[in-house]
Write a structure and sequence with these properties.
Strand content: 15-25%
Domain Thiolase C-terminal: 239-381
InterPro entries: Thiolase (IPR002155), Thiolase-like (IPR016039), Thiolase_C_2 (IPR055140)
Strand order of the largest sheet: 3-2-4-7-1-8-11-10-9
Number of helices: 13
CATH class of the largest domain: Alpha Beta
Largest sheet: 9 strands, mixed
Protein name: Acetyl-CoA acetyltransferase
Organism: Gryllotalpicola reticulitermitis
CATH superfamily of the largest domain: Thiolase/Chalcone synthase
Radius of gyration: 19 Å
Shape: globular
Pfam families: Thiolase_C_1
CATH architecture of the largest domain: 3-Layer(aba) Sandwich
Order of helices and strands: EHEHEHEHHHHEEEHEHEHHHHEE
């Protein structure tokens, strides 16, 4: 019997990408999304009127695909605005692949935009009362992450020093990225550990940046992709999984559904985590990154801190991770998932500049939603992997 989903391997490709990691200025979130979309469509070498699938979410709009279609002048025949938090965009790759494969659309646009830093507010809906958390002083999402970190440290002996290596590695990568902030400020373990405690044991520099930003991707069939001018990144596998919205619904604070989404994605791709040349894994916090590295399969459960401490994820290491600086040192406009995909594609195209990983042919992008509740994994490959 053929593996479930194996027929989709290599049949879909990302053909256009764009990202804006810059202040919004006078632009609205929709304006940021539109600018990114124009650039991605131009990068793909297609016309705007060829876009007939639209996948978008942003907390700024109640009906993001309708708002954006009106703003940008699109009339898509297929739309999806599923909200899975920061992993929505990896999930959209799978949703778009299914829609394209079944003829529901031909060219799908994924887009996201946020003016979070300019607005100076958190991107969490005020309509959701976290009844089992907020009355006890839980500060979303940092306090839930602190609970996860404390449990991991108790159960596996991981340390704040080990987690801090994630922030140091991210800063080293970001210093190779000409569009990253703080390029002139190296980061040390002592810097992280001496930064203010936000929610014990989470320090300020264990947390991601708060920025404005937008990103967009264009996806189509592999057959159409070969007729376009850009170098495509082929979707080899994808998977998604979720089980909770609030930290009080997490049955095991050290294990996430990334185990399931990654397993499905790698099974479809025919690869393993050890076959990956570049990894782009959601790094809202150093601690959550360690847990995700374990659950995706880059190391054994409990060894995420040791993996970070080993230096494997730094430039020149055996596991190039978050090669643009990630959410910790490049960009984090409320949701990071789309930027994980754009960086993975840049690496596979070979146009990542000073941060380029030599010979990168396979990449994984893993998104996380809310407090480690939603997960989606995408395995990408260059043409040679087909």
């Amino acid at each position: 019997m053929a593996k479930r989903g194996a027929s989709l391997r290599g049949r879909i490709a990302i053909v256009g990408i764009a990202e804006l990691a810059e202040p919004a200025g006078a632009r609205s979130p929709a304006g940021m999304m539109a600018d990114a979309a124009r650039l991605a469509i131009a990068d793909a070498g297609v016309r705007k009127d060829q876009i007939d699938g639209l996948f978008a979410t942003t907390p700024y709009y109640y009906a993001p695909t309708l708002t954006f279609a009106e703003y940008f002048g699109l009339a898509p025949r297929y739309t999806d605005s599923s909200v899975l938090g920061g992993c929505s965009f990896e999930a959209y790759v799978g949703h778009a692949a299914a829609a394209i494969e079944t003829g529901l659309c031909d060219y799908a646009l994924i887009t996201y935009g946020s003016t979070q830093r300019s607005d100076g507010r958190a991107l969490v809906s005020g309509s959701e009362w976290l009844e089992y958390e907020r009355p006890y002083g839980m500060m979303h999402p940092i306090s839930p992450i602190a609970m996860i970190a404390a449990r991991h440290m108790h159960q596996y002996g991981s340390t704040s020093e080990q987690f801090a290596h994630a922030a140091v590695a991210a800063r080293e990568w970001s210093r190779l990225n000409p569009r990253a902030p703080y390029r002139d400020r190296p980061l040390t373990i002592d810097d992280v550990l001496s930064s203010p405690l936000i929610s014990t044991p989470v320090h300020k520099l264990d947390c991601c940046l708060v920025t404005d930003g937008a990103a967009a991707l264009v996806i189509t069939s592999a057959e159409r992709a070969r007729e376009l001018p850009t170098v495509p990144a082929f979707v080899l596998g994808f998977g998604e999984a979720s089980d909770h919205r609030n930290i009080t619904g997490m049955t095991d604070l050290t294990v996430t559904r990334a185990v399931d989404s990654a397993q499905r994605a790698f099974e479809m791709s025919g690869l393993t985590p050890q076959d990956v040349d570049v990894a782009e894994v959601y790094d809202a916090f150093t601690m959550s990154l360690a847990v995700l590295l374990e659950d995706i399969g880059f190391c054994a459960k409990g060894d995420g801190g040791a993996l970070l401490e080993s230096g494997a994820t730094r430039p020149g290491g055996s596991l190039p991770l978050n090669t643009n600086g990630g959410g910790l040192s490049f960009v984090h406009p409320g949701m990071l998932g789309a930027f994980l995909l754009t960086e993975a594609v840049q690496q596979l195209r070979g146009d990542a500049g000073a941060r380029q990983v030599t010979g990168a042919r396979t990449a994984v992008a893993h998104g996380m939603g809310f407090t480690l509740g939603g997960h989606a994994t995408v395995v990408l490959g260059a043409a040679e992997t087909l």
